[in-house]
Amino acid sequence: MASAAVERLKKQLPKRLAEVRGDRSQRQFARDLGVFQQNVNRYESGTTPHTDFLVTLALKENVSLDWLLLGKGKARRGR
Protein backbone atom coordinates (compact mmCIF):
# COMPACT_ATOMS: atom_id res chain seq x y z
CA MET A 1 0.00 0.00 0.00
CA ALA A 2 1.34 3.42 -0.88
CA SER A 3 2.49 5.56 2.01
CA ALA A 4 0.04 8.32 1.00
CA ALA A 5 -2.84 5.86 1.39
CA VAL A 6 -1.56 4.82 4.81
CA GLU A 7 -1.37 8.45 5.90
CA ARG A 8 -4.96 9.05 4.75
CA LEU A 9 -6.15 6.07 6.80
CA LYS A 10 -4.18 7.21 9.85
CA LYS A 11 -5.83 10.65 9.67
CA GLN A 12 -9.27 9.04 9.94
CA LEU A 13 -8.45 7.06 13.10
CA PRO A 14 -8.94 9.96 15.57
CA LYS A 15 -12.41 10.60 14.13
CA ARG A 16 -13.38 6.96 14.54
CA LEU A 17 -12.03 6.89 18.09
CA ALA A 18 -14.15 9.92 18.96
CA GLU A 19 -17.14 8.22 17.34
CA VAL A 20 -16.67 5.15 19.55
CA ARG A 21 -16.32 7.39 22.62
CA GLY A 22 -19.60 9.07 21.77
CA ASP A 23 -20.99 11.40 24.43
CA ARG A 24 -18.65 10.16 27.16
CA SER A 25 -15.89 12.47 28.31
CA GLN A 26 -12.36 11.41 27.52
CA ARG A 27 -11.89 10.80 31.24
CA GLN A 28 -14.90 8.48 31.47
CA PHE A 29 -13.95 6.70 28.25
CA ALA A 30 -10.43 6.15 29.60
CA ARG A 31 -11.84 4.78 32.86
CA ASP A 32 -14.13 2.43 30.94
CA LEU A 33 -11.12 1.10 29.03
CA GLY A 34 -8.72 1.09 31.98
CA VAL A 35 -6.27 3.53 30.37
CA PHE A 36 -5.04 7.03 31.13
CA GLN A 37 -7.12 9.98 29.89
CA GLN A 38 -3.95 11.53 28.49
CA ASN A 39 -3.58 8.57 26.14
CA VAL A 40 -7.14 8.97 24.84
CA ASN A 41 -6.45 12.66 24.29
CA ARG A 42 -3.22 11.97 22.39
CA TYR A 43 -4.85 9.30 20.22
CA GLU A 44 -7.79 11.56 19.37
CA SER A 45 -5.26 14.29 18.54
CA GLY A 46 -3.50 12.13 15.98
CA THR A 47 -0.85 10.09 17.80
CA THR A 48 -0.93 6.49 16.58
CA PRO A 49 -2.38 4.27 19.34
CA HIS A 50 -0.48 1.35 20.79
CA THR A 51 -1.60 -2.12 19.81
CA ASP A 52 -2.69 -3.02 23.34
CA PHE A 53 -4.97 0.03 23.42
CA LEU A 54 -6.55 -0.95 20.10
CA VAL A 55 -7.11 -4.54 21.20
CA THR A 56 -8.60 -3.41 24.52
CA LEU A 57 -10.87 -0.97 22.70
CA ALA A 58 -12.02 -3.64 20.25
CA LEU A 59 -12.82 -6.12 23.00
CA LYS A 60 -14.43 -3.80 25.57
CA GLU A 61 -16.38 -1.70 23.08
CA ASN A 62 -17.18 -4.52 20.62
CA VAL A 63 -15.57 -2.54 17.80
CA SER A 64 -14.26 -4.05 14.58
CA LEU A 65 -10.55 -3.39 14.09
CA ASP A 66 -11.11 -3.43 10.31
CA TRP A 67 -13.52 -0.53 10.71
CA LEU A 68 -11.40 1.27 13.27
CA LEU A 69 -8.14 1.09 11.32
CA LEU A 70 -9.29 0.85 7.71
CA GLY A 71 -12.85 2.18 7.70
CA LYS A 72 -14.08 -1.12 6.24
CA GLY A 73 -17.25 -2.91 7.26
CA LYS A 74 -19.45 -2.14 10.22
CA ALA A 75 -18.24 -0.34 13.33
CA ARG A 76 -19.72 -2.87 15.72
CA ARG A 77 -18.87 -6.51 15.45
CA GLY A 78 -21.63 -9.10 15.22
CA ARG A 79 -21.88 -11.64 18.00
The end-to-end distance, rounded to whole angstroms, is 31 Å
CATH architecture: Orthogonal Bundle
Along the chain, the helix and strand elements come as: HHHHH
Tell me the helix content.
55-70%
Largest sheet: none
Oligomer: single chain
Structural class by helix and strand composition: mainly alpha
CATH superfamily: lambda repressor-like DNA-binding domains
Total beta strand runs: 0
The gyration radius over C-alpha positions equals: 12 Å
CATH topology: 434 Repressor (Amino-terminal Domain)
Q: Which shape, going by the Cα principal axes? A: globular
Instruction: Note poorly predicted spans.
Output: none
β-sheet strand percentage: under 5%
Written description of the protein model:
The chain is an all-alpha fold and about 80 residues long. It has one domain (about 5-70): 434 Repressor (Amino-terminal Domain) (Orthogonal Bundle). It is built from 5 helices and no strands. The chain has helices spanning about 5-20, 25-35, 35-45, 50-60, 65-70. Helix 2 packs across helix 3 (about 35-45). The protein is globular and about 35 Å long.
Main traits of this protein?
79 residues, mainly alpha, 0% strand
Please give the structural blueprint:
Layout: H1 3-21, H2 26-33, H3 37-44, H4 51-61, H5 65-70
Helix pairs in contact: 2-3
Summarize the structure.
The protein has a single domain (3-70), classed as 434 Repressor (Amino-terminal Domain).
